[in-house]
Amino acid sequence: GAVVSQHPSWVICKSGTSVKIECRSLDFQATTMFWYRQFPKQSLMLMATSNEGSKATYEQGVEKDKFLINHASLTLSTLTVTSAHPEDSSFYICSAKGAQGIAFFGQGTRLTVV
Amino acid sequence: AQSVTQLDSHVSVSEGTPVLLRCNYSSSYSPSLFWYVQHPNKGLQLLLKYTSAATLVKGINGFEAEFKKSETSFHLTKPSAHMSDAAEYFCVVSKPQAGTALIFGKGTTLSVSS
After folding, report:
1. Is A103 in contact with B107 (Cβ distance < 8 A)?
2. DSSP characters over B38-104
3. Are A75 and A24 in contact (CB under 8 A)?
4. Is B96's pLDDT higher than 70?
5. Neighbouring residues of B97: CB distance < 8 A, sequence distance ≥ 6
6. pLDDT-derived band at B100, boundaries 50, 70, 90
């Protein structure tokens, strides 16, 4: 099946710093990518949808200035958590959808802000 | 608006017995429905999907789900549970307005005992 690679798998950062998470579709072109957040023992919450070359569409309640999303190419989307705080600690998962219409998920990134 | 409700947060079965994970959906459109599985410390894997073709959908690892429009249900079943089936299962509906982003249910934890 199609592969979506997410990097890094886990990251620890200091409060106030920024963290960038990369999501790559390795063997298909992803016209649309999605970013989700998952709290412990909870479901995935859609944060934003991004289409290649255009601005991301954020879900209600998600701060676009805090969670910067860039979808510069058909195989790469990045999520930057700016000025991270402990409450931003979470599991972030990206998803990529190509022409086949199926969304494939990355392995996730566990972010811990200390 | 699209949403899914997973009726059980936790299901426990014995190895070799049937599995039933319940899901009800709400959708203003003819929905696309999915079941995903998440094993500990691993990414999400697509089990099966319904996209208005056959109402009984067969997936991987012996799982299947039946779309019942009259009951707005999409329950996941498996005739005989294996220990390796223990995981978190998510019922998911697509959100057409946002490039088919996926909206997740809260998840059902499946435990399998020997």
Report:
1. no
2. E-TTS-EEEEEEESSS-SEEE-GGG-EEEEEGGGTEEEEEESS--GGG-EEEEEEEEEGGGTSEEEE
3. yes
4. no
5. none
6. low
Backbone φ and ψ of A26, nearest 5°? -85, -30
Contacts of B41-46 with C-beta under 8 Å, sequence gap 24+, read B42/A107, B43/A4, B43/A93, B43/A105, B43/A106, B43/A107, B43/A108, B44/A44, B44/A93, B44/A105, B44/B90, B45/A105, B46/A102, B46/A103, B46/A104
Pairing of strands A109-113, A10-13: parallel
DSSP state of A87: G
- In chain B, residues with a C-beta closer than 8 Å to the C-beta of A32 are 99-101
Residues A61-72 pLDDT 10s: 999 999 999 988
Q: Does A101 touch chain B (CB under 8 A)?
A: yes
What one-letter code names the amino acid at B80? S
CA of B88 vs chain A CAs: smallest distance (Å): 9
> What is d(CA A76, CA A23) in angstroms, rounded to the nearest whole number?
6
Test A42 with B106 for CB contact under 8 angstroms. Answer: yes
Name the DSSP letter for residue B17: S
Q: CB atoms < 10 A from the CB of B6, how many?
A: 21
Taking the Cβ of residue A2 and every Cβ of chain B, the question of whether any pair is shorter than 8 Å is answered with no
- Chain B hits for A103, Cβ within 8 Å: 46, 100, 102
**Positive or negative CA dihedral for A84, A69, B107, A10?**
negative
Structure tokens at A47: 């944060």
Length of chain B counted residue by residue: 114
Query: Which residue, among B108, B87, B92, B23, has the nearest Cα to A103 in the 3D structure?
Result: B92
